[in-house]
Amino acid sequence: MTPSAAQLGMGQVYHRRLRPRAHAFAYPSYFLWLPMRSLRREAVAALNRNGFGWLSFHDADHGDGGSDALAWLDTLLASEGIDDADGEVWLQTYPRVLGHAFKPVSFWFCERADSSLAAVVVEVNNTFGERHCYLLCGADLSWGSEQTAAKVFHVSPFCRVEGRYRFRFLHGNRHVISCVDHDDDTGPLLLTSLSGRLQPLTSRSARAAFFAMPALTLMIVARIHWQALKLAVKRLPFFSKPQPPERFVTR
Question: Is residue 1 scored above 70 in pLDDT?
Answer without folding.
Answer: no
